[in-house]
Amino acid sequence: xxxxxxxxxxxxxxxxxxxxxxxxxxxxGMKPEPPRKAEEVVKRFVKAKPxxxxxxxASVTAPGRVLATNEVMLVxxxxxxxxxxxxxxxxxxxxxxxxxxxxxxxxEAEMSLRAKKSQFLNSLANMLPDIKIDYPDFYDQFNQFxxxxxxxxxxxDLPKVATGNNEQLKVFLASRNILSDYYSIKKDExxxxxxxxYAPFDGTFTQxxxxxxxxxxxxxxxxxxxxxxxxxxxxxxxxxxxxxIKVGSSAIIHSTSRNKSWHGHVSARPILSRPIxxxxxxx
Length: 283
Hints:
The chain is an alpha+beta fold.
């Protein structure tokens, strides 16, 4: 095939292809555009319910050591020999509130006090005739006071007129040393009561320094005692747990050795400046 013929055929094919493309575009443009489908809105749903607030209780468990809330040192307030009370003066001995723990020998102090009262009665007896003459309105009160004085009992209260506004009567009583003797005896009566020591609470002796029969001086530490009616448990708590501990929160104390439980409450705030904090629960 000649070169010229090849060119003619090639050109014819190109023209035919171009015409076909144009015809296709025309036909496509004549086709009606299909209707568009409306976009569907997707609705999402979740389950919900009203908020109900309530308290969440946090539990902190830790071992602790039982301590006494009251620890008192028994001190002698008078000098003398120790005499037995209502319980044994021994370590571990238990006592009840109000029981007589011990006596300190006081016979000499009692006799001295009775001698003072006898002298005071003598002064009153010598004074009554003068009161009957000079102050007849007050005689019955002083006579009744004189009759009520007992050597083995505390002095009764003075008649109110003795410390009232009657200056002449007060001068008269002062001149006879009635007021000074009265208050001196009342002071000795208070001092005599210090010879007998009573239990301030239910408790037990944890330390005894002197036995019955020993001589002690004023201020001597006789024994150490603790209260058994109220106990506390000191519990070390980690820092991360201490924020859950509030004063007044309830606590339950369990004893592994006795298989018992007690109810208490937190009585002390954690110490913020230390890595280990403590709480105390009263049984």
